[in-house]
Amino acid sequence: MEKTLTFDNQSINEAMNIKLTDIPKDIPAFQTGIRRAPRREAKLSNADIKLALKNALRYIPEEYHEELAPEFLNELMTYGRIYGYRFRPEGNLYGKPIDEYKGRCTDGKAFQVMIDNNLDFAVALYPYELVTYGETGQVFQNWMQYQLVKKYLEVLTEDQTLVIQSGHPVGLFKSKPDAPRVILTNSLMVGMFDNQEDWKRATAIGVANYGQMTAGGWMYIGPQGIVHGTYSTILNAGRLKLGIPQDKDLSGRLFVTSGLGGMSGAQGKAVEIAGGVGIIAEVDYSRIETRYTQGWVSEVAKTCKEAFNLAQQKIDANEPCAIAYYGNIVDLLQYAVDNNIHIDLLSDQTSCHAVYDGGYCPMGITFEERTELLAHNPEKFAHLVDETLRKHFELIKTLHNRGVYFFDYGNSFMKAVYDAGCKDISKNGIDEKDGFIFPSYVEDILGPQLFDFGYGPFRWVCLSGKHEDLLKTDEAAMSCIDPNRRYQDRDNYIWIKDADKNNLVVGTQARILYQDAMGRTNIALKFNDMVRRGEIGPVMMGRDHHDVSGTDSPFRETSNIKDGSNIMADMATHCFAGNCARGMSLVALHNGGGVGIGKSINGGFGMLLDGSQRVDDILRTSMPWDVMSGVARRAWARNENSITTVMEYNKMCEGKDHLTLPFIADDEMINDLVGDRIFE
Ligand SMILES: NC(=O)c1ccc[n+]([C@@H]2O[C@H](COP(=O)([O-])OP(=O)(O)OC[C@H]3O[C@@H](n4cnc5c(N)ncnc54)[C@H](O)[C@@H]3O)[C@@H](O)[C@H]2O)c1
Hints:
- By secondary structure, this protein is of the alpha/beta class.
- Helices cover 40% and strands 12% of the residues.
- Strands 3, 4, 5, 12, 13, 14, 15, 16 and 17 form a nine-stranded mixed β-sheet that branches.
- Helix 4 packs antiparallel against helix 5 and helix 11 packs parallel to helix 13.
- The longest helix has 24 residues.
- The N and C termini lie far apart (57 Å).
- It binds nicotinamide-adenine-dinucleotide.
- The site of nicotinamide-adenine-dinucleotide (NAD) has 35 residues, from helix 7 and strand 7.
């Protein structure tokens, strides 16, 4: 017997007062020249397609179902996703000054600034598809979620918490001013289903959002966010591998890499700031144009010969220069191999975490042909990708044997090469358990030199939208750094001193500055005091998830964790919970990030500095926790620099914080004792 429901859509409608009511009449026009996401791949059964439609229609009042169901079906069949384009506001979105937003509390308005900034044409990779960066990193799954979350943020009060799961606003729950205003997660999947195939289905039927890191955590600040990390990475790679002294830069050195997209677009700017010469291969001309117009690359070369000749001229003249090479990285490297060209540092920043979804362009075809092939013949596309990855690996091996230092830039390049059939890229030649033959940048450089001390990508946004506020915060941050303490502090001091001159802002008035636990705490307290005194408007403070703590990612952030716990996600989960408990304004936890579904759990936060005493109190406990929980885990894994950092911290925080340190067993004693035993 069929069950009779005790409700209908009318009673459901009456039971909600926060909902989508103004249904736009048409799909707003798509502006030409704005990059669009390629068709996304997913295998959907007939039942899945029906489910996807019913799921999307959950946001829509019944009277519009007949009109919108075919439109949503068309989007799903055309793009592999239901984006709900009709609900996208017309024209460009951008982070406006906070006072221009509606809201019942400053946090509610502040998060609207952050969301809109993540979707700005100038900032986002595929703004119409809500992708901020990293090929697939979305702010929300669809525009209905954008509209509904906005409505919630407009009514959110300072004793409520908005709960968001994969872009979907579950609702507002009464909490208290000291609790987070927003708790959000993206694509957290049950272990058994935590794989690319199940995730693709989940996202196509509208239950999962790939938040990447800061896209789904609303904390992306344009490519500047990554310039500082890239600058530190290549500078320290030069010091560690090329013997450059700690007080010198990359003058006269050549860095070759690829990618001028969302994050990779930072490479040109970073190499120039570090004083070196860089050639960055990019297959999509529109991205070269963007970076050239922004001044983030200084020259464009259309042939390999032109690129290397120009680089040599700049090296000879000792002039920093970023050269975009329009073409495939594999062709560029082939030219370098054939012509025996000397390269100092070599990397790659194509979107290898999503090679079969368009993140990596095969050789022999143009970017436009790649888009066509991806849409119409994904099997052939995948075959070409594998072939190119194998070739790419061969070329890197040749260059490596000639003495070039290659490092993986956290884009899953080595994993992609391994998946393409090159088992010899893994250390044990069988599987990935022991890692890969080339170091990742975190394993070799960023981990030991920065993360193990607690230095990570602290950032802030001046919500007034005023450049003068940003300049005041730059000054204030600089006054908190002692450049003579460590060489990292000197690098950070120089970075912030020159930040405005380097013209780094794209989108909102934002800044990134690598800092350690106490540096972040002191700067945050100083800014909050400036807000209190009325010297600047409110500030949203946060960090990249790509940090000391917050992220468990064995192929990247935690690749220098060698006690076997690199496969655990306890630290990221605890960091999230601890930030929640201490009252950060927004706490986020995601699956995937920059390395792909199932390969990392990553979290971050947003903290609104409104000048209140309440915020001072939260900062004093949450900032050290956010950083030191990660350093503690690194120290327990026996990482040398973390151990010394924790020793100092325990002394400094006696009676308040206390972190457990490991006793170190003697390797020789263990080797002698164990001999060649195994246990089966
Ligand atoms: N910069 C960092 O510190 C950092 C940190 C972590 C991870 N990553 C990773 O780096 C990757 C890139 O990130 P993104 O945001 O720039 O992605 P993106 O997709 O915006 O940019 C990648 C660029 O590479 C280009 N490209 C693809 N194949 C190419 C080829 N064969 N030759 C030349 N160019 C090619 C694409 O056209 C695109 O512009 C991601 O996997 C990301 O997770 C970067």
